[in-house]
Specification:
Rossmann fold; 2 domains; 7-stranded mixed β-sheet
């Protein structure tokens, strides 16, 4: 029955409320990263570095796992009392945590945003080396931890890095670890949740609420935190208004070849400055870039990269938003597989001098593996470029994703030749 039918008119508010509760139940906050963190500490002694954009769920996940433990401690560099304890050094932390006392299991110690401390690497190295078997350390940060701070003491060999991404189709429908990269059983996603995921992005709060007013306020606050807190505190960049303009320009050229000289003219800075600022925006998880694959392609075009946003909801053009949506899912998959130790994975696009082009190529251990083209409609015929590049690269799987195609309950990866598949079916088999 329709919600606006006579039967429901008097109780529409109740029905809508129940439906929103249903959506929240379906979009479980159980994250695939929970099992990844548990797996890490079951198998490794190293510190766990959990990085990713602001409000992606790093702190929530860490505290949830800490609460599961019999003993955990949380230190946030932005908290004045916590900061004073950290500044006192490893011995002060050890005393606070009770590392000199006998315990049944090592406590979990969480350090949040500690990369803002100039000597954070020295601090962690000293703590880890002094008490290597007595604690489990989780370090979270909303910046790439190897970019902004340098130190003479290396942490090499003392930590493993895990990159946390927004929610994806696969994580919503089955947040489970699999032994292999791909899930052989695709899972369907509720159409309304799929629509909201594309509209509001994959960050937990906006997709859970799926409310436009909340989303607009959340988006504005996150923008202010990035450009007026993070960039100011972590870099020496003073031209905040100009780097905002650069970020805005990126929103309107998603999936296009990037011309550094063109951006430099529009922002009125040098090309070198544009490159540095783009590196900063990538380090703070505003955007990411992919480069063209040039090996094994005759007359390949080695050009500048393409840029995409971590939050695809910021992209206004619907076609570009869908391409960004797929790019984000692919990046999440290759990061997850690589961080877990399943192999070396990377993401490229394909283009040659004849202007044949395909949106994405996933490589596995430096070899072409999956070729992906993104289309809004299933009515688009298979791109001839898919056949051309598969013949050259010998990639095992070649897909043309269609966003308007209904879910098909069949393993996409049982196919090897170019084929049109539902975007949601393909993406549900990733991470």
């Amino acid at each position: 029955m329709r919600l606006d039918s006579d039967h429901f008119k008097g109780n529409r508010k109740i029905v809508v409320t129940i439906y929103h509760i249903y959506l929240k139940m379906v979009i479980s906050m159980k994250r695939v990263y929970e099992k990844l963190v548990r797996e890490h500490f079951e198998q490794n002694r190293q510190m766990l570095f959990l990085v990713g954009p602001r409000q992606v769920g790093k702190t929530t996940l860490s505290l949830f796992l800490g609460e599961e433990s019999s003993d955990y401690f949380y230190f946030n560099w932005d908290n004045q009392d916590h900061r004073l304890t950290i500044l006192e050094g490893a011995k002060a932390i050890a005393q606070k945590v009770g590392l000199d006392q006998l315990s049944t299991s090592p406590p979990i110690v969480i350090f949040d945003e500690i990369h803002k401390y100039r000597k954070w690497k020295d601090f962690l190295k000293g703590l880890f080396d002094t008490y290597p078997q007595r604690l489990r350390i989780i370090v979270t940060g909303s910046a790439q931890l190897d970019v902004f701070r340098t130190s003479s003491d290396s942490l090499m060999g003392r930590y493993f890095l895990y990159r946390m991404h927004p929610l994806s189709i696969a994580e919503i429908t089955h947040p489970e670890l699999t032994r292999q990269e791909l899930n052989s059983k695709p899972s369907s996603i509720n159409p309304k949740i799929f629509e909201n995921l594309l509209k509001y992005g994959g960050f937990p709060e906006p997709i859970l609420k799926s409310n436009t007013q909340f989303y607009n306020r959340w988006k504005r606050l996150r923008h202010q935190q990035l450009f007026y807190e993070d960039i100011r505190s972590l870099t020496r960049i003073q031209e905040l208004a100009q780097i905002e303009i650069l970020a805005e320009l990126l929103r309107y050229q998603i999936g296009q070849l990037t011309s550094f000289s063109s951006l430099a003219r529009k922002v009125n800075v040098s090309i070198d400055t544009i490159r540095r600022w783009l590196t900063t925006l990538q380090a703070l998880y505003y955007c990411f870039s992919i480069r063209p694959w040039s090996k094994n392609i005759s007359r390949s075009l080695i050009k500048e990269p393409k840029f995409y946003l971590w939050d695809w909801s910021l992209v206004e053009n619907e076609g570009a938003k869908k391409e960004n949506f797929v790019a984000s899912h692919l990046l999440k998959a290759i990061h997850f597989w690589t961080d877990r130790g399943l192999g070396e994975y990377d993401l490229f696009f394909l283009r040659d001098k004849e202007k044949r082009e395909v949106d994405f190529l996933i490589t596995r251990n430096q070899k072409p593996w999956i070729i992906i083209e993104v289309k809004s409609s299933k009515n688009h015929s298979l791109s001839s470029s898919l056949f051309h590049f598969q013949a050259q690269l010998k990639a095992k799987h070649v897909f043309q994703l269609a966003f308007d195609m209904a879910h098909v309950d069949k393993n996409c990866f049982s196919e090897t030749g170019p084929i049109i598949v539902p975007a949601q079916t393909f993406l549900s088999q990733l991470v």
